[in-house]
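quick q for whoever's on today - can somebody do inverse folding on this one?? i tried earlier but teh output was garbage lol. tokens:
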């Protein structure tokens, strides 16, 4: 019997594939659909203190090798997602959910966490330090001093399971530097990676950019992203304390891609672009394909190959 079970922060999950906070997790309707699918669980859209409409449309476009988006963090505000999760916790006792949060400064991050603490939320918080799509706001994950300040303030206050979502890094020195910072904190996990920020996709026929916000600049997801995502998962697994788990996100289109993320060290795998393209049926397909890869290789569970990527 092949199992894709996993665990994050001491919580067990029947599957190791779930949605990513990003392009399919905005409304109760979308979250209901993820809940009713083969996904391990759900993570909410990154919530802010007050609701946001996000960037003007069109703000998402599929491309031959993936997608470009500049959603700009549209969300209904943290209270909406805490209410949704509270109802889910009552409906399915024992199941664990993720709430994604993002403040626009450390004070807002702390205010968001206080709101979580004041609620009946029992799951895992994901702090998004990597959205590339808010005009005028740099990606926090590239400012290592800011990351340090935020994590110091966060862990002064909050001791329940918390992970962070990071942007992709491209230089081995940057992996060394950011991992040294992260290893100082009791992080449950690192989620690598958010989209590659500020790519540009062009419609040659129309001689135009594809999306409206930020003159067409947006986060690149899908197949383009996979080598970068795998590099980040593998580089972090080599550098982070073993107590810090890894969620691998980026470029998953099929079960072999999920297998590769786990081989590089991911404990859970999230999907964004392919979920937006195919809808929640994708979770059943990816799980079936992952199990087929595992069966062909003789693996019964993901721990048998997790992090065991061979180097030459
Ligand atoms: C967005 O809302 O712009 C996408 C989510 C993210 O990049 O964190």
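ok took a stab at it. sequence:
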């Amino acid at each position: 019997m092949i199992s894709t079970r996993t665990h994050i922060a001491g919580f067990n999950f029947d599957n190791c594939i779930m949605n990513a906070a990003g392009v399919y997790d905005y409304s109760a309707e979308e979250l209901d659909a993820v809940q009713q699918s083969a996904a391990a669980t759900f993570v909410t859209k990154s919530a802010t203190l007050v609701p946001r409409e996000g960037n003007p449309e069109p703000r998402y476009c599929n491309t031959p090798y993936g997608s470009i988006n500049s959603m700009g963090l549209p969300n209904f505000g943290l209270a909406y997602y805490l209410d949704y999760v509270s109802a889910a916790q009552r409906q399915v006792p024992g199941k664990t959910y993720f709430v994604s949060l993002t403040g626009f400064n450390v004070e807002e991050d702390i205010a968001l966490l206080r709101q979580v603490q004041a609620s009946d939320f029992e799951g895992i918080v994901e702090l998004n330090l990597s959205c590339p799509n808010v005009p005028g706001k740099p990606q926090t994950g590239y400012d290592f001093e800011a990351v340090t300040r935020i994590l110091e303030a966060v862990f002064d206050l909050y001791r329940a399971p918390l992970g962070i979502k990071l942007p992709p890094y491209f230089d081995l020195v940057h992996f060394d530097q950011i991992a040294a910072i992260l290893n100082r904190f009791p992080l449950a996990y690192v989620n690598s990676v958010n989209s590659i920020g500020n790519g540009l996709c062009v419609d040659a026929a129309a001689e135009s950019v594809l999306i409206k916000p930020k003159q067409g600049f947006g986060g690149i997801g899908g197949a383009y992203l996979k080598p970068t995502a795998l590099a980040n998962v593998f580089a972090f697994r080599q550098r982070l304390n073993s107590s810090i788990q890894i969620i691998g996100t980026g470029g998953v289109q099929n079960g072999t891609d999920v297998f590769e993320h786990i081989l590089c060290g991911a404990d859970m795998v999230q999907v964004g672009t392919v979920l937006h393209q195919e809808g929640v049926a994708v979770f059943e397909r990816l799980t079936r394909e992952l199990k087929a890869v595992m069966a062909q290789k003789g693996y019964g569970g993901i721990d048998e190959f997790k992090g065991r990527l061979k180097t030459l």
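fwiw The chain has one domain: 6-54+73-196+222-304. also The domain at 6-54+73-196+222-304 is CATH 3.20.20.70 (TIM Barrel). so keep that in mind when u check it
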